[in-house]
Design brief:
The complex is a heterodimer of chains A (498) and B (318).
Chain A lengths: L6 E10 L2 E11 L4 E5 L6 H8 L7 E6 L2 E3 L4 H6 L2 E4 L11 H5 L14 H15 L14 H13 L5 E5 L7 H16 L3 E5 L3 H7 L2 E6 L2 E7 L5 H9 L17 E10 L3 E9 L3 E6 L5 H8 L7 E6 L2 E2 L5 H6 L2 E4 L3 H5 L6 H6 L7 E2 L2 E2 L1 H14 L16 H13 L5 E5 L7 H16 L3 E5 L3 H7 L2 E6 L2 E7 L5 H9 L4
Parallel strand pairs in A: 3-8, 3-9, 6-7, 7-8, 13-20, 13-21, 16-19, 19-20
Antiparallel strand pairs in A: 1-2, 1-4, 4-5, 9-10, 11-12, 11-14, 14-15, 17-18, 21-22
Chain B lengths: L6 H19 L6 H26 L7 H17 L4 H24 L5 H20 L9 H8 L9 H19 L1 H11 L1 H6 L4 H27 L10 H11 L11 H20 L4 H30 L3
Helix pairs in contact in B: 1-12, 2-7, 2-8, 2-10, 2-11, 2-12, 3-4, 3-5, 3-10, 4-5, 4-10, 6-10, 7-8, 11-12, 11-13, 12-13
Classes of the chains: A alpha/beta (498), B mainly alpha (318).
The structure holds adenosine-5'-triphosphate and magnesium ion.
The site of magnesium ion (MG) has 6 residues of chain A, from helix 1.
């Protein structure tokens, strides 16, 4: 290990039109060191990652590889230099298999240049074994959950034997068990001399994995320092620029009538015999490992997928299967897990995305009132502290966390009586997370029933009145708030079937 | 993107330029009589283009429109031959068009087949049915009151009736596409169908409706076509779907869905109409006319792609 950092940025600035995403930022990644990058939504973290990856060219400043200035003309250059990147949003080819995605462009060959599929699958299985992933290497990636897509991206990056591994929120959709396995693999790479850059809004993960942390705020470099000796609050102060209370715990609300009743709901091969109730004023969490069937239950309740047996009742009225429109009519809202495919129309503006769930209520006569549409968007943008330039801008240019806020806004604006949220704070920074928690608590206080799917255990424990745990498509436990602990939830989520 | 650089505005400007050039260079072009004729000649294409715009914005397409037009024409002929009153024939034929559209729509929405493939199939099917109905013969001698409606002008103006109808429907379509919830839903479906479905938009029902609409309009255009030429034939309107799609794409509607304006499409339709008329006045053969249509189609698909490739390169950021 030489004195030079393996990869570094020196005095880098990058603007998108009027938005200055990075201003004179420096960072040094050393071999054998895991370096965290912290900052609020829109602070410039992903922009920094994309600069290191050769996706963005810096307006000013240089990239240094082993101390030598280099110009990366594209992602291929960075790969050539031994930099592997996991981007914040998965970028898989939906029609190619899992294994083909992982080995894209460098498939193992047999004689005459033929692709060695058997070897490819075997290597994929070996990688998955290390990560504890249970996916068929031969299946197409279309239809994989966000968490599984993220795991495939991780396997893809790990398979590259990189000198530098950059991970932009790899754990955002993962639960504790998958995260722990990822960390042990990354730890092993680090010990072999790999330089790591890691981004996460779950600060505990930064303390668990990293030795150094660099903080950005509004595109500006704030600090680079050892993690040892820093407290959670120190880090938050660097990111936010002020002190922040603890994560907002749920306030007690008067629990009312049953708002959502799910009885013996079954979708063959996906989930079986799921029954539970959510009352007005309650927040019920649905916990479990990735792939336990939580999102699938939420999708069925909202009518995205049909169910084979069972009933879903909202405020005493049974819902027809397979109709999101009917579910919305009954007062249901679903904040889905995949914001790019399911939550947002990326080519549309912020205000139109928020308006999309209110095409009826925004009507004045036969046509849509643009003013009402803008007011609705402005109102919710302010309430969720959305960071944006203009409401007419496309949602595509927002940072990941701010896109998530637009999805939340779009559904909260429908004033639902039952709110189903699937990973509501995925990719959201600490400050806003507290904000979202306060909001959910407030909504419950107003008598809304909330069903929350979350892989973030502290969030589950802090927010839920009751925790339902799913494993392998079945409900395995219902734990009241008083008895919910990390151990009791994890136990119910992982205990092997007898 | 700045307003001047918008594709539909560019097409509008091109329209004005072609008109100016035509007026200067081609004698007999800028006369009221010729322009009225050129507009009338465009009637069916323009009508069908309205429904096609809605489909393409929603990332679907209907290639069977010209065959529905032909089938409709053949039916008008056969039923007239059989002695039915024209007042009965028109609603019947339009209904058949709706059914043709329904079949397309059901194949696309129920079986999940791509509309390009489905409507290439029904393009052949409906044209075949047209020949079954009328064979090779032509039926003429329709009541003059009706043929006059198809070729005549709105009293006191040089505007043919079908064009007046188009203008009316264009306003309605424009409002629907750009100002109503239904229009918003079409853009959302075209740009990101899954997100539209998750937002509670009835994606399949809306698509089905669009195909029915397209079939209905195409059949009605078949009636207009038949009366305008005073001749019902199974091969009427052969190849019209290409002119329609060329006009829609030229108007800046993205074939991948989710983009485009009706104003652009109207400019596209008029531009195609002017070019066809100029070529005709210049005694250019129909083969060349077809080549020009084809080139326009390719240019209108290619140019926006080239622009989006070249623009970042000019700005110096990838
Ligand atoms: N391609 C782009 N065009 C315009 N603006 C952009 C683009 N990419 C990023 N931005 C803007 O740059 C700023 C920084 O974005 P970036 O994605 O780097 O944030 P981030 O720190 O990764 O946030 P998050 O935690 O939400 O992922 C934001 O204001 C964002 O809107
Ligand atoms: Mg980011």
């Amino acid at each position: 290990m030489g004195a030079h950092p393996t990869l570094a940025l020196a005095g880098v600035s990058k603007s998108f039109g009027a938005v200055r995403a990075l201003r004179d930022v420096s960072i040094e990644l050393y071999a054998g060191e895991a370096h965290a990058l912290a900052g609020e939504n829109g602070a410039g973290k992903s922009t920094l990652v994309k600069t290191l990856a050769g996706v963005h060219r810096p307006d000013q400043g240089v990239i240094l590889l082993d101390g030598e200035p280099v110009v990366l003309t594209g992602p291929a250059d960075a790969q050539q230099a031994g930099v592997a990147v996991i981007y914040q949003e998965p970028t898989l080819f939906p029609d190619l298999s899992v294994a083909e995605n992982i080995f894209m462009g460098r498939q193992p060959r047999r004689s005459l240049g033929r692709i060695d599929r058997a070897a490819m699958r075997a290597q994929t299985r070996e990688l998955f074994g290390r990560l504890g992933v249970d996916l068929d290497p031969g299946r197409p990636t279309r239809g994989l959950s966000i968490a599984d897509q993220q795991l495939v991206e991780i396997a893809k990056a790990l398979s590259r034997d990189a000198r530098v591994l950059i991970m932009d929120e790899p754990t955002a959709a993962l639960s504790g068990a998958e995260t722990a396995r990822l960390f042990s693999v990354v730890e092993a790479l680090r010990e072999h001399g790999c330089a790591i850059l890691f981004i996460s809004h779950r600060l505990d993960e930064i303390f668990a994995l990293c030795q150094r942390v660099t903080t950005l705020r509004d595109g500006q470099w704030i600090a680079s320092e050892p993690v040892a000796g820093l407290t959670h609050d120190d880090l938050v102060r660097r990111m936010v620029g002020r002190d922040l209370g603890a994560l907002y715990p749920k306030q007690d609300a008067a629990v009312g009538d049953v708002a959502l009743k799910v009885e013996r709901l079954t979708r063959e091969g996906v989930f079986t015999d799921v029954s539970f109730e959510v009352r007005r004023g309650e927040i019920v969490a649905l916990a479990g490992l990735v792939g336990a069937g939580r999102s699938e239950v939420a999708r069925a309740i909202f009518g995205i997928d049909r169910w084979d047996a069972g009933t879903v009742t909202v405020a005493g009225r049974e819902l027809p299967p397979g109709s999101p429109t009917a579910a919305m009519g009954a007062g249901l809202a679903l904040v889905p897990e995949d914001r790019r495919q399911q939550g947002l129309v990326m080519e549309m503006s912020i205000e139109r995305n928020i308006g999309l769930t209110g095409l009826r209520s925004l009507r004045r006569g036969a046509t849509i009132s643009r003013r009402a549409e803008r007011d609705r968007a402005a109102d919710w943008a302010a309430r969720l502290r959305l960071k944006f330039a203009r409401l007419g801008d496309g949602v595509g240019v927002l940072s990941g966390g701010n896109q998530q806020k637009v999805v939340l806004a779009k559904w909260l604006a429908t004033e639902p009586s039952v709110l189903v949220v699937d990973e509501p704070t995925r990719g959201i920074d600490v400050g806003t997370k507290a904000e979202v928690h306060r909001l959910l608590s407030e909504l419950a206080g107003q008598g809304i029933a909330v069903l929350m799917i979350s892989s973030d255990l502290p969030e589950v424990l802090g927010m839920a009145d009751r925790v339902l745990v799913m494993r392998e498509g079945r409900l395995t436990a219902e734990i009241p708030r008083a008895e919910a602990t990390e151990e009791s939830v994890m136990h119910a989520a992982t205990r092997r079937a007898a | 993107m700045t307003r001047v650089l918008r594709w539909d505005v560019l097409v509008g400007a091109l329209l004005v330029a072609v008109f100016a050039a035509g007026s200067l260079a081609v004698p007999g072009f800028a006369t009221t009589g010729n322009l009225s004729f050129a507009l009338g000649d465009l009637g069916e294409i323009a009508l069908i283009a309205l429904a096609m715009t809605l489909l393409v914005v929603a990332a679907e397409v209907d290639l069977s429109v010209a065959s529905v037009l032909g089938l409709s024409s053949a039916l008008v002929g056969a039923l007239w031959d059989a002695g039915l009153a024209i007042e009965t024939i028109i609603p019947l034929v339009v209904l058949v068009g709706a059914v043709c559209g329904l079949v397309n729509g059901l194949l696309v929405t129920r079986l999940g087949l791509p509309s390009l493939a489905v409507t290439i199939g029904t393009l052949a099917l409906y044209r075949g049915l047209a020949y079954v109905v009328l064979g090779d013969k032509a039926v003429a001698q329709f009541p003059p009151a009706y043929t006059a409606l198809a070729v005549g002008d709105v009293p006191g103006t040089p505007v043919p009736y079908p064009v007046a109808l188009f203008a009316l429907l264009a306003v309605v379509t424009g409002v629907v596409l750009h100002a109503t919830g239904f229009g918003r839903a079409l853009y959302a479906i075209g740009a990101q169908e899954q997100a539209a479905f998750f937002a509670g938009i009835r994606v399949k029902r809306i698509k089905l409706l669009l195909f029915v609409l397209s079939g209905t309009v195409a059949a009605f255009a078949g009636v207009v076509f038949t009366l305008r030429y005073g001749s019902a034939r199974a091969d009427n309107g052969l190849g019209v779907e290409l002119a329609v799609i060329a006009a829609v794409l030229l108007g800046g509607v993205d074939f991948d869905g989710g983009k485009g304006t009706l104003g652009g499409v109207i400019a596209g339709v008029l531009l195609i109409g002017l070019l066809r008329n100029l070529l005709m006045l210049g005694d250019v053969s129909t083969e060349i006319q077809s080549i020009v249509t084809g080139l326009l189609l390719i240019v209108s698909v290619l140019t926006p792609r080239l622009v989006s490739l070249v623009r970042p390169a000019l700005k110096g950021t990838p």
